[in-house]
Amino acid sequence: MKLFGMDFGCVFGSLRHGQIPDNDCLLPLISKLLGYCIVAASTTVKIPQILKILEHKSVRGLSVMAFELEVIGYTISLAYCLHKGLPFSAFGEYAFLLVQAIILVAVIYYFSQPVGTSRWMRALLYFGLAPTILAGKIDPMLFEALYASQHAIFLCARLPQIWKNFRNKSTGELSFLTCFMNFGGSMVRVFTSMQEKAPTNVVMGSALGAITNGTLLSQIVIYKKPETKKEKKVE
């Protein structure tokens, strides 16, 4: 019995005979289920961050460069996984994250007026190159180099925000829910990528995402208490 690429036959067969399914049967199924859960959850990951900015009409404490680099990283990851022909459950979240990340950057630009010429140039350059990359119409060696560089891109996307939080001893308008979902998704994706026998680059990228997202999440927890105390004093 197969559904969305998931084989329930061995599980139901074992249960029918009063046996616990073995790991070779259970782990791939769990991996697929978790993969689809990540894809489903990814449709709303950036929404809390977008809503928080819209609610406060502020991008205080947010690194614009971090979110711009995130868009580039998601674009390369999505293009690479499509090029490698991986199952949708192994990378589907990148499609939804990319769309939300682009909307998020647009919202940040709107509340970061005036938007300089350099930002407009970066945006135009991205929309000029992204379709070619997503279509896979580039040299295979260049594709591998791009994907290898996306680990550095995601690291560079997180580091400015991590450093800004540390320097300000505050996370500003950074959304706890978005960071929490990013961290949880990265942790689960490490497991699913290994089960789906994804390339080592994909697994490494997920592990790096778990570390950096975990750092951002811990900063929100650490710096939230002092901010709450300050607010009480003002009142």
Question: What would you say this structure looks like, in words?
Answer:
With 235 residues, the protein is mostly helical. It is 76% helix and 2% strand. A two-stranded antiparallel ribbon has the order 1-2. Strand 1 and strand 2 form a beta hairpin. Helix 4 runs antiparallel to helix 5 and helix 4 packs antiparallel against helix 7. It starts with a strand and ends with a helix. The C terminus is likely disordered.
Kindly list the characteristics that best describe this protein.
235 residues, mainly alpha, two-stranded antiparallel sheet, 2 strands, globular
Strand content: under 5%
Q: What count of helical segments does DSSP give?
A: 9
Which parts are unreliable, with pLDDT below 50 for 5 consecutive residues or more?
A: 226-235
How would you describe the shape? globular
> What string gives the helices and strands in order?
EEHHHHHHHHH
Strand sequence of the main sheet, in spatial order? 1-2
